[in-house]
Specification:
The chain is of the alpha+beta class. It is 35% helix and 22% strand.
């Protein structure tokens, strides 16, 4: 704390009947970086997870999916759509969805000066693309419009997954995330969401 508050000020604060903080030595501990073998082992496990068939992914222990999906699959429910939603979120991040390409339209995204949500969306998307674990996953920043089964429409700026090694993505589908949504009624951008 003495790095933040000089000793005279610190003593004055601690002399009060109700000090507003207690000095502590708590900090994030720095450790040596793991050797490449540890990283290779992690990535090897990550590749195995990506390649899992649906049944193995659902039944994995510890579970990757919700208890509802696991239980209802075993009870005989039609489970594939819920599986796809959960797996896409688990694999790519909670803002991501996967729908038939016929429900999605996209075009080049336009930037806007002095627009907080667009600026934040750019930061989120740049970080996401830069830190992606699978380099073969190719994302593009796009303006996206989605029409859901109930005919509701959502539009905004986000990421389209153009190529991936995730073989479990159904043919004819697109994985995407709307990072900042356009409010069609109020004609404003909504706050950006971190896609992961």
């Amino acid at each position: 704390m003495t790095d933040i508050v000089d000793n005279g000020t610190l003593e004055k604060l601690l002399d009060k009947d109700e000090p507003f903080f207690t000095p502590t030595k708590m900090q994030t501990r720095k450790v040596p970086m793991a050797d490449c073998g540890d990283h290779a082992n992690f990535f090897s496990r990550r590749q195995e997870m990506r390649a899992m068939k649906s049944a193995a992914w659902i039944d994995h222990n510890p579970p990757f999916c919700s208890g509802t999906l696991r239980k209802n699959k075993h009870l005989g429910f039609r489970w594939y759509q819920q599986y796809l939603e959960e797996r896409v979120c688990w694999e790519f991040g909670w803002e991501f969805e996967c729908l038939p390409s016929s429900r999605i339209r996209f075009n080049d995204a336009l930037t806007e000066g002095d627009c907080g949500p667009i600026t934040e969306a750019g930061w989120h998307m740049e970080r996401y693309i830069t830190l992606r674990p699978f380099l073969e996953d190719r994302y593009e920043v796009k303006s996206i419009e989605v029409t859901y089964e109930d005919e509701s429409v959502k539009e905004g700026v986000g990421l389209i997954l153009r190529e991936t090694s995730a073989r479990w993505i159904p043919n004819g589908h697109i994985v995407y995330a709307i990072v900042t949504e356009w409010d069609r009624e109020k004609k404003v951008w909504l706050p950006a969401n971190n896609p992961c």
